[in-house]
Amino acid sequence: MPLKILQDFIILMNIQNDAFAALRYRDFSIVTLNQFCLTLAILIQEIIVAYSLYQITRDPLTLGFIGLAEAIPFITLSLWGGYFADKLNKQSIMKVCLFFSIPLPLVLWGLFHFHGLEKIGISTLSWGIYAVIFALGTIRGFYNPSATSLKPFLIPRELYANGATWTTIGWQSGVIIGPMLGGFMLAFLGRETSLFTVTALLATCFMLITLLQRRSFPKMETENVLQSLTDGFRFIWKTKIVLWAISLDLVSVLFGGVIALLPIFAEEILKVGPEGLGYLRAAPSIGALMTMIVLTKFPPMHHAWRNMLLAVAGFGIFTILFAFSNNIWLSLFALAMTGACDSVSVVVRQTVLQIFPPENMRGRVAAVNGMFVSSSNELGAFESGLAAKYLGTITATIFGGCMTLAVVTYCWFKTSDLFKVDITKGTDH
C-alpha cells in the first residue's frame, strides 16, 4: 500500500509539472480546437459587421446596439441554458446550437449584398443585422453553459488549472488571429468571401463536436425548473469567492471595455483603416496569449484573489493609457497590456468556477456566470457606444478605465478575508 501511494504521488507530480497535461486528453484537445475555430469565426464576423456598419452609418450608437442585440437573449436564456446543460446531454446541445448557427453568416451576406444593390435602406440593413445578432445571442444562451460545464468532465480534477489555462489560450489564439484575418480579408477579399469563410468555420466546429466520445453526466438532484435554477443562485450567493469573482469581472468589463469603440479609433482617431482595426482588435489577445504561456508554468494560484484584483486594476490603468494615445504603437502596447492583465483574472475565475461548484451544478453555475459576465461584454459595448455618442469617444474610454479602478478599490477593502484563500482546495472558509 505505501508503494502504491508513492507511485500515485509520483504520477501526480509528473502531471502537474507537464505544461501540456490537459491537452494529452483527446476530447479536451478536440473541445479546445473547437473553441479556437468558433472564436475565429465570431471575431472575423465581428470585424466585418462592426466596421462595415459604422462605415455606412457613422453612428457610434449602432455599435452599441450590436452588443445590446446579443445581450438581451443571452441574459434571458442563459439560466435556462444552464438548466438544460445539467438536465440533458451537454454534447448534444452543443451540436444542435452549432448546426443552427451555420447559415447565419449567409443571412448577413444577403443583407449587405442587397444594400449594395440599393434594394434595402440603411434602416432595414441595421435591423436585419440586429436580428441576426439576436439569433446568435439566443444560440449562445444555450451553447455556452453546456460548453463551459463540459470541460471539467474531460480532464482530472488536478488538471483544472492547467485546463483553464489552455482553454484561455485556445480562445485568445482565436481572438488574435480572427481580427487580423478579418481585417485583412475585409480589406483585400471583401465582405462576401469573408462571410463565406465564417460559415465554413462554423461547419468545422460542428464536425469537431461530433467526434467527441459519448458520455453520461450526473443527474440533477431536482427536476423542478425554478428550484433547480434557484439552487444555482443560492450556491453562488453563499460561496463568497465565487460571488465576488463573478461580480468583479461583471462590473469591470461593463465599464472598462473599449473593444466596441475600436472601429471609431481605427477610422477617425488613429486613421489606420480595416487592417489597423484588425491589429487593434488582436492586440489584447497577443498580450493575453503571451501571459498565458507563462501561466502554464507559473499559475497565479498563490495569493490568487490578490493577483486577480491587481490584474483588474492593471486593466483599468492601461485602458486609460489607450484613451490618451494617438500613436498606433503606444495604442497597441496599451491594448496588449489590458489583455495580459485580463488573462490573469480569467484563469483565476475559471479555476474557481470549476473547483467550487458540485459536479451536478456546474451547468447552472456556468450559466449564471455567463449571464452576468459574458453578457457584460455586450452590455459594456452598449454602454461604450452610448457614452461615446454623448461624451465623445476618448472621454468615454477614460471614464470606463476610472470606473474599473473604483470597482477594484471597493473590492480590495470588502474582500480582504479572501486574500488567504487557497482556491485549489475548493473552500473559501
Structural account:
The chain is mainly alpha-helical. It has helices at 2-16, 26-57, 60-87, 90-101, 104-116, 122-150, 160-188, 191-210, 225-238, 240-256, 262-269, 273-297, 304-324, 328-355, 362-391, 393-414. The protein is globular and about 60 Å long. The two termini are 32 Å apart. Residues 3-12 have low confidence and may be disordered.
Write the layout of secondary structure elements.
Blueprint: H1 2-16, H2 26-57, H3 60-87, H4 90-101, H5 104-116, H6 122-150, H7 160-188, H8 191-210, H9 225-238, H10 240-256, H11 262-269, H12 273-297, H13 304-324, H14 328-355, H15 362-391, H16 393-414
Short description:
With 429 residues, the chain is mainly alpha-helical. The chain has helices spanning 2-16, 26-57, 60-87, 90-101, 104-116, 122-150, 160-188, 191-210, 225-238, 240-256, 262-269, 273-297, 304-324, 328-355, 362-391, 393-414.
